[in-house]
């Protein structure tokens, strides 16, 4: 060990940090590292540590990140330390970062990072002694700044003009035959238009169908669009108003209010869901969503109950709010409640307690699963119960084992399905190779009809492998094999898995695979492929995918179900007019937002049985995507949090871990002035010396302070 100490000291002095780290990992004494790092090499050392953690078996990975956290804290590189604390999901560490730092501006930057990660976090006296300062910080954590920042971006890029579904479909570019599609049922088309309109104008606060300017109010055309939808379609239409006013709680609740006085149960259900959507990702100390929705949970009508329950799940995702648990868990044991109410309750509880491993909730969902009758176990909705259970353990690895043992005692109809769902959720985002092999093994079996557990296993491959680029590429190749050799039920899930792997990141090879599958003989495969084309292009305005979808809309003009899927995908590609992303990863693909992943996984599980859920009367599960919607922007603000325009270079990020010297971190850059949009794999750096960013990662809201050493060259 004496020799090791000398070798490490030598390596650290001579810019060979990776060798030093490797040696210390081999002799299992990483703690030595903290003494040897200095101001010159701590950044490179920690970069190597955090990058290698993805490839280490547990529990070594956590140990390595602990050391990186200690080094960052030692050199007061607080934003990086905070990111590691969030990666480890260690709230003690998060607290430590706040207590160790005395600069209010830096604390504001930490709050922006917490808000982007989407966790509910309460600041206390230790973290910020001053009451007024603490209120300002708590407001940032509560994400109240998101809406105005997003609208500032939209004004800057000049896309405030509302778009109608026709602007998206661009039917005039097609040959004549599709536009006159007389065979198409108009309610289904209007429902599709409702979703397209909601996705495209999400968060802009104005559109051409639901929010109509005041002078037209005498004609009341917003109610008239609502009634162009049939029955349960009205629920999605009313809820779409919440999507258009996304993140703007005050005006959202004011505009949804009119629907609460409706006599139509579907409209009320939609309004309740709309309240949940408006509040999604925004916290508020007065809890408006809980106050509004709580009274409707125990109503007679199951539509209204589902609206309120799903609304609570969206509004309080990840908050682990005790009041919601005490209100929702009794429904799971209620013998009178219909299956759909129970299924949505389980999902909402899973969302509110995502990744918490909460035993009471787990217990309640397990009992609800055991109470199901033989006939109910075959229903697609019952599978949402096991999904709700899985969400409780999202990313928590071996903590799922006790519950997984219990699931082996379930009825054999659901046993394996539940087991796959639990495992895939527990290891989501970990990159655990052994689990990927386990899922591939499950998919290799050729079974009789009626087995459903292979769907979640295929999704499991994507959920586990999405953690890092290398595993992701390998998973795409493995899924290609499943397409060639797998049975039908596996082929139906493969497009969805591809959609999750490349979400909001349209890779050409995946785009081509999905394009091929969108003409598949099996309609379920085609539908999944079309929805996935929407997912991989979500919020990118990708012209090639938009073109493919237009062609598909004329190809399937006679088939209402497939056309509906094409429309939804078209809405997704133009999500937020190209300003939003669905990618759950952020901070240079280091952190995974648990609520965002939960929303995506919920939608994908619903897509495993398209006909029953999305094409049936549960199309509003599409709104679970709102959990993953985030502006893909870099917004620079000054010390008073007012937008500040500075030049930045935006280019493809280059992985510089372990490289000698000071290599460039981005390539092929263009210089823009902020606010700017960041695509998948993009990185930004300031193109001016005049300001210093308070966060090393330029994404989302970044506070700039003036550089005291800056001199204007005359």
Automatic annotation (TrEMBL):
Its taxonomic placement starts with: Eukaryota, Viridiplantae, Streptophyta, Embryophyta, Tracheophyta
In this chain the RPN1 N-terminal domain maps to 2-173
Record's protein name: 26S proteasome non-ATPase regulatory subunit 2 homolog A
Write down any Gene Ontology CC term. proteasome regulatory particle, base subcomplex
Keyword Repeat attributed: yes
Pinpoint the 26S proteasome non-ATPase regulatory subunit RPN1 C-terminal domain residues: 657-710
The organism encoding this protein is Olea europaea subsp. europaea
Coiled coil start-end? none
Any Pfam family matching the protein? RPN1_C
PANTHER family reported in the protein's UniProt record: 26S PROTEASOME NON-ATPASE REGULATORY SUBUNIT, 26S PROTEASOME NON-ATPASE REGULATORY SUBUNIT 2
Keyword terms of this UniProt record:
Proteasome, Repeat, Ubl conjugation
Per the record's keyword annotation, is Cytoplasm included, yes or no?
Answer: no
* Record family assignment: Belongs to the proteasome subunit S2 family.
Please name the GO terms of the biological process aspect recorded for this protein, alphabetically.
Answer: proteasome-mediated ubiquitin-dependent protein catabolic process
């Amino acid at each position: 060990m004496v020799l090791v100490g000398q070798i490490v000291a030598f390596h650290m002095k001579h810019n060979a940090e990776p060798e030093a780290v490797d040696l210390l990992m081999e002799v299992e004494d990483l703690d030595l590292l903290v003494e040897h790092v200095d101001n010159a090499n701590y950044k490179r050392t920690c970069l190597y540590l955090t990058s290698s953690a993805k490839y280490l078996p547990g529990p070594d990975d956590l140990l390595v990140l602990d050391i990186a956290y200690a080094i960052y804290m030692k050199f007061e590189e607080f934003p990086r330390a905070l990111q590691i604390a969030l990666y480890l999901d260690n709230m003690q560490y998060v607290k430590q970062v706040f207590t160790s730092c005395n600069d209010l501006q830096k604390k504001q930057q930490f709050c922006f990072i917490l808000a982007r990660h989407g966790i509910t976090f309460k600041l206390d006296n230790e973290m910020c002694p001053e009451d007024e300062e603490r209120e300002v910080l708590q407001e940032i954590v509560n994400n109240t700044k998101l809406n105005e920042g997003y609208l500032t971006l939209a004004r800057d890029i000049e896309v405030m003009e509302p778009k109608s579904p026709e602007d998206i479909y661009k039917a005039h570019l097609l040959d004549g035959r599709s536009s006159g599609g007389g065979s198409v049922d108009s309610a289904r088309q209007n429902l599709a238009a409702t979703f397209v309109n909601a996705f495209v104008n999400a968060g802009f606060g104005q559109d051409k169908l639901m929010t109509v300017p005041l002078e037209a109010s005498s004609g009341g055309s917003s109610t008239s669009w609502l009634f162009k939808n049939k029955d349960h379609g009205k629920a999605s239409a009313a809820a779409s108003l919440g999507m258009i006013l996304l993140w703007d709680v005050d005006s959202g609740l004011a505009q949804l209010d009119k629907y609460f006085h409706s006599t139509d149960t579907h409209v009320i259900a939609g309004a309740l869901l709309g309240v949940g959507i408006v509040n999604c990702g925004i916290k508020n100390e007065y809890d408006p969503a809980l106050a509004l929705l709580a009274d409707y949970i125990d109503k007679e009508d199951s539509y209204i109950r589902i609206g309120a329950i799903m609304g609570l799940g969206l509004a309080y995702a990840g908050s682990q709010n005790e009041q919601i648990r005490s209100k929702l868990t009794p429904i799971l044991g209620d013998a009178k409640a219909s299956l759909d109410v129970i299924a949505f309750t389980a999902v909402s509880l899973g969302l509110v307690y995502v990744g918490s491993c909460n035993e009471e909730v787990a217990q309640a969902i397990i009992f609800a699963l055991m109470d199901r009758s033989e006939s109910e176990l075959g229903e697609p909705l019952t599978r949402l119960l096991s999904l709700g259970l899985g969400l409780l353990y999202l990313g928590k690895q071996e903590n799922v084992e006790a519950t997984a043992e219990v699931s082996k005692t379930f009825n054999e109809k659901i046993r394996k399905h539940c087991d796959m769902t639990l495992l895939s959720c527990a290891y989501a985002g970990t990159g655990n190779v052994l689990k990927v092999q386990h899922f591939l093994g499950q998919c290799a079996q050729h079974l009789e009809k009626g087995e459903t557990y292979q769907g979640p296993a295929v999704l499991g491959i994507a959920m586990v492998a999405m953690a890092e680029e290398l595993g992701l590429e390998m998973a795409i190749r493995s899924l290609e094999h499943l397409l060639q050799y797998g049975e039908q039920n596996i082929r139906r899930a493969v497009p969805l898995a591809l959609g999750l792997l490349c979400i909001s990141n349209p890779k050409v090879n995946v785009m081509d695979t999905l394009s091929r599958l969108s003409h598949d003989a099996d309609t379920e495969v085609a539908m999944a492929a079309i929805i996935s084309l929407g997912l991989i292009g979500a919020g990118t305005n990708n012209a090639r995918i938009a073109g493919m979808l237009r062609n598909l809309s004329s190809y399937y003009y006679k088939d209402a179900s497939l056309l509906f899927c094409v429309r939804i995908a078209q809405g997704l590609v133009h999500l937020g007019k190209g300003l939003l992303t669905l990618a759950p990863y952020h901070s240079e693909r280091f952190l995974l937002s648990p609520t965002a992943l939960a929303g995506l996984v919920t939608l994908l599980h619903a897509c495993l049985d398209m006909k029953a859920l999305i094409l049936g009367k549960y199309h509003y599960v599409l709104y679970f995507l709102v959990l993953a919607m985030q502006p893909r922007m870099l917004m620079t603000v000054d010390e008073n949090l007012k937008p500040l325009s500075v030049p930045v270079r935006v280019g493809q990020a280059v992985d510089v871990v372990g490289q000698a010297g000071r290599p460039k971190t981005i390539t092929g850059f263009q210089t823009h002035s902020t606010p700017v949009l960041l695509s998948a794999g993009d990185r930004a750096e300031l193109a001016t010396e005049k300001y210093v960013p308070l966060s090393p990662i330029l994404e989302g809201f970044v506070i700039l302070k003036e550089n005291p050493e800056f001199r204007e060259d005359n």
